[in-house]
User: What shape does this take?
Amino acid sequence: MAGYNPITDHPVYTFTPLPHQATNQTMETNTQDKEPTTTPLINRELSWLAFNYRVLQEAKDRTVPLLERIKFMAIFSSNLDEYFKVRVATLKRLIKLKKKTRDKLSEDPADTFEQVMQEVKRQQEEFGEVFREGILADLRQQNIHLLTENDLSTEQQKWVQTYFAEHIQPHILPLLLDDTETHFFLKDQTVYLGVQLFDPKEKDLKPERFSMLEIPTKKHGGRFVKLPTEGEERYVMFIDDVIRCCLPALYPNYTRFEAHAVKVSRDAELDIEEEVSGSLMAKIQKSLQKRETGYPARLLYDPVTPRPMLEAIMAHTGISEDELVEGSKYHNFRDFFGFPDFDLPDLKYSPQPTLVHPLLEKEESLIEAMKKQDYLAHYPYQSFDYVLRLFEEAANDPKVTAISATLYRVAEDSAIAKSLVKAAKSGKLVTVVVELKARFDEESNIFWAGKLQKAGANVILGLPDLKVHTKLGLITRNEDGQLVNYAYLSTGNYNEDTSKIYADHALFTSNQTITQDVEQVFNFFIDRQHDKKFKKLLMAPINMQDRFVDLINREIKNASKGKPASMILKMNALQDERMINKLYAASQAGVKIELLVRGICCLVPGVEGLSENIRVRSIVDRYLEHARVYIFHNDGKEEYYVASADWMTRNLSRRVEVAFPILQKDLVEQLRAIIDLQLADDTKARDIDNNYIKQESPADIRSQYATYEYLRKLIPEGMEPIRKSK
Assistant: This one.
C-alpha cells in the first residue's frame, strides 16, 4: 500500500515521470476488473509546471498579437508566484517535518522540491530569452522602446529626473543596512531595489554601504512610465530604471551605485482547522493578516547581484540561502498587465463583441422564458448579462418568495450580490452560501457576507471540512398558490468580470426533477446530512465519484460485449487515482477516450497495454478554458454532464460540487458541436508533451474562434447579434 502525500493529494508511487517524457512501462493488472494494481502517474507538481509552460508558449508565438503576448508573460509570472506561495511553500513545510514523519510520505518532499526547482529554473531561463530576444525585439519593430537608465538621451534624462522628483521620490524611503542587527521586512509580492553605494564624497563616510528601497508601484499607479513620444517613436521605462537613473538624488553623499532587484513570495496556505464550534470568518480574517507575514517561499534575485549585497539582504531580512531563487533583472512580470497599449489596436486581439443569446434576448421575463424550455449559455462568447437580469428580476418580482445561491468568487462590485441584498431587504427569504476559503478572494467574500447578513439574508459561511465550489442558484416563486422552482447551474462563478475571459457553460432550467435536486443541495447546506438522494444531479461528496465510476464501468461492459464504447472528458485537472485507474481499465477494455485537460494531468496516455486508447490534449488560447464536460457513449444513447468539478481528489471528496445533465436535444447538439471543435483544434491544442497537435488533414481550426462563429450563426437573420449591456 502506498503512502499518502498531502502535496499531490493522492497515494505516491515511485513511478513519477517528468513532463515531456513518455513511458513504456507496463504495470501489472488485476485480471478481474482490469485495474492496475499500482498507478503510473505523472508528478502533479511537474504537470502543473508543464501547464504553465503552455502559457509561456503563447508568449513565444508570433502569431499572437504582440501586446497579448506581453499579457501571457504576465499570466505566466502571476501563475508562478501563486504556485510558490501555495504549493512550494507546502513542500517546504513538509521538508521541515521530522524524519519519522517524512518517512511515512513514501516520497521524499526534498526530491520533489529539487525536481520542481530544476524545471522552474529551466522555464525562467527560457522566459528571459523570450523577453529579451522576442518581446523586446518585436516592440522595437513597432517603434516601441523599453528604455533602461543607460539608453536615455540628454533630453530624456532631464525629463526623467523631473518626473522622478515630482511623482516617485515622495513615495520612496531608503533604508541603510548598517552593521547593526536591524530587521528589514520584505512585503509579499513587492519589488525592492538593493543598492550598493560606492565612492563617498566625504572621507569620514564608509567607502561602501548597502541600502534597500521599495519600488512604489501601487502609489505610483503602475510599474511603467511613458516618456514623451518623438515622431512615431514611443518610449517607456520600468519605474525600477527611473529610480536607477535618479539614485544620486536619493543618496547625495555617494557618487557611484549598483542597484539590483529582489522580490519575496511568502507562504499563502491557510491551513485552517475547521471546527464546527469555531468562528470560520474570524479564522479566515486572522489568516489573511498572517499571509503578509508568512515565512518566505522564495526570494527572487537578479543573477548578477554581488554576493556581498545578497549576504547583507539575508542578514537583515532573515531569509536563508535555501530560499534564494535566481530570477532576472526585473521581477513581478505580472505588472505587465499594465503595460501601456499606446492606442495601437492592431497589436491586440481583434475584437470579439459579446453575442446575444438567440432565444433569451427576445424575452422580457427570463423567469417566464424558463417555463417554456431549458437554455444553455456559453461564456464569454454570449453575454453574462442574462444572469444579472435573472437575479435582478427575481429580486423585484413580488411572486418570488425565496432565492438561494452559492457565492465562490464574485466581482468586486457584484451586481448579483447587490440583487441578493435587495431581495433580502424586501422581505424575501434569501439563503446565500459564501465560501470563505476561496483562495485569494477571501476578503471580497467576507465583505459581501457582511453586507448580506446586515440585509437580513441567511448567510452560511461554508461548511466544516468541505469547500463549497459548486455554482448554483435557485429561485422559488408562488404561482397561483403553488411553489415553483427555477434553477441556474454553471461551470463558472457568479462573476461578471471573469465571465469575459473564462470559457464556461450555464444552464437555465425549470425542469422539475433538476430543480428538486438543486433544492436538495441547498438542504444539505442547512442540515449537513449526507442522506440526500438525487435523481439527476451528481453531487460531491455524496454520489458524484461513484456515479462517474458507474458510467465508466458501463462503457467497459459495452466494450467487452463488442459494442462501440467511448468517452469524451473535458476538465481543468485530472489527478484522482481512483478515476485514473478506471480510465486505464477502460482503455485496456477497448474504450476510446478523448481527454481535454487544460491544466494538471497525472494520467500517462499512450502506454501500450495500459493507456493506448487514451488521447490527451490541452487548449491554451485567448480565453481560459474553464468548463467541465463529461460525455459517455452509452451504446449510442449519449449522456452529457456539465460540472463544476475536476477529477481531483479534493473536488470529488473534499468539496461540494455538482454535475448536471443536459437533456434537451438542441442543447445537446450545441454542446457537442463546441466539444467537436475543440477535438478538431489544430492550432492551439497541445499533447501531453506540449507539442502542438497537427491533424492528418490540417483544417486550421482554432476552436475558440470557431466556437464564436458557430454561436454567431445560431442568431436568426435580422436580430442584432451584438449584446449591448444595459
In short: Residues 1-36, 270-281 have pLDDT under 50 and may be disordered.
